[in-house]
Design brief:
single chain, Ubiquitin Conjugating Enzyme, 4 domains, four-stranded antiparallel sheet, cytoplasm, E3 ubiquitin-protein ligase FANCL, DNA repair, DNA damage, ubiquitin protein ligase activity
């Protein structure tokens, strides 16, 4: 279709390498007699693309005489050449979309693509956090359900019928946000009052936080979005001589967990510790570099393999330590565990192979 369109309409210019989107002018020959309704004469490809826009062509040409050429800007009719021409929405699609946006409120619209298919709507939860709902409309909107996505820790379940509107969709999204308010409140308190090692830049869909306890010691907590104030899954990371006492306290005191208190307050009580915070400590004090590659972050990983010797305690990236031990003639492997010597103190050290290497 591309070569035929350009041949018949030399004023068209392709806008992409695939030559599926054009801008420019098309020349349409419209012939009619004074008492006859206008008739559109052009190639079948162009007629197919203009389906639904014939009345615009004929209106613009109603004052023209027979055989006069009519030039239409492609942008005026929102026309684009694409492999699947049947996906071009009819004119009613745009009027329906504008009507729904006027009802919803234009202040809710963050952006819309040039095809008027993908909308990004703003929403605010009850705690004042800003969220974005991305909606991809189908050409038969509202008969077809749109695709919706958002940065959430749970699947976005949306109910849609042919009678549904964007305003109803936005209201459903607000209800989902309200159901997750406690979950985000829990994580916001942790983010504000502790030093987070992972993830480096948490998103609203992240349910895990790795919280600093001390040098080379941390706790990884997995918060349940549906039951955010209950005891989360906990995993203590660090040298065994430091982690073992904390693990014993966690097991002995978990019955003290109070769902009416905050998760951070409960963690302090159960572990019998005070977490370092931005108000009391610098994060650099806990960002100790890997003893092998001398960097803190290796892609997304941080040094989480620690020598258990009390006088050493040097941290390593799992990948670095694995490669180091594997190169030692004295190292040995049992299943997925590699045994060897610490690069710093030569004391026994082990590392478990990651899923990619096992």
């Amino acid at each position: 279709m591309e070569s035929s369109l350009v041949k018949d309409n030399p004023l068209l210019l392709p806008l992409n390498k695939e030559k599926t989107i054009y801008d420019g002018f098309i020349t349409v020959q419209v012939t009619h007699h004074k008492n006859d309704s206008p008739k559109l004469h052009c190639s079948w490809q162009l007629k197919h693309l203009l389906r639904g826009y014939e009345h615009i062509v004929k209106q613009v040409n109603s004052t023209q005489y027979t055989h006069n050429a009519l030039s239409l800007s492609l942008q005026e009719v929102g026309l684009k050449s694409r492999p699947d021409c049947s996906s071009i929405p009819p004119p009613q699609y745009y009027s329906q979309l504008i009507s729904e946006m006027e009802t919803l409120g234009w202040d809710k619209l963050l952006s819309i693509d040039t095809e008027f298919r993908t909308l990004r709507l703003k929403a605010q939860d009850s705690s004042g956090r800003q969220h974005i709902l991305t909606i991809k409309l189908k050409s038969k909107h509202p008969a077809e359900a749109p695709e919706c996505s958002a940065d959430l820790p749970v699947p976005l379940a949306i109910t849609w019928t042919p009678q549904s509107t964007l305003e109803q969709l936005h209201n459903q999204f607000l209800l989902v946000l309200d159901s997750l308010t406690d979950f985000w409140d829990v994580l916001d308190e942790i983010d504000c009052k502790t030093w987070i090692l992972e993830p480096e830049k948490p998103s609203r869909s992240d349910t895990m936080r790795r919280i600093t306890i001390g040098n080379n010691v941390s706790i990884k907590v997995e918060v349940d979005p549906r039951h955010p104030k209950m005891l989360p899954e906990c995993c203590l990371l660090g040298a065994e001589h430091v982690v073992t006492p904390l693990r014993n306290k966690l097991n002995a005191n978990m019955h003290m967990w109070n769902p009416d208190s905050s998760v951070l307050h409960n963690l302090r009580d159960v572990l019998e510790i005070e977490f370092p915070s931005p108000a009391t400590h610098e994060k650099s004090a806990f960002s100790i570099e890997c003893g092998i590659c001398y960097s803190y972050r290796l892609e997304a990983a941080i040094p989480d393999q620690v020598c258990n010797d009390l006088r050493c305690g040097q941290p390593f990236h799992q990948a670095c330590l694995y490669e180091w031990l594997r190169a030692l003639p004295s190292s040995r492997q049992s299943f997925s565990i590699v045994f060897g010597e610490c690069p710093y103190c030569s004391k026994p050290i082990t590392v478990k192979m990651s899923a990619q290497k096992s």
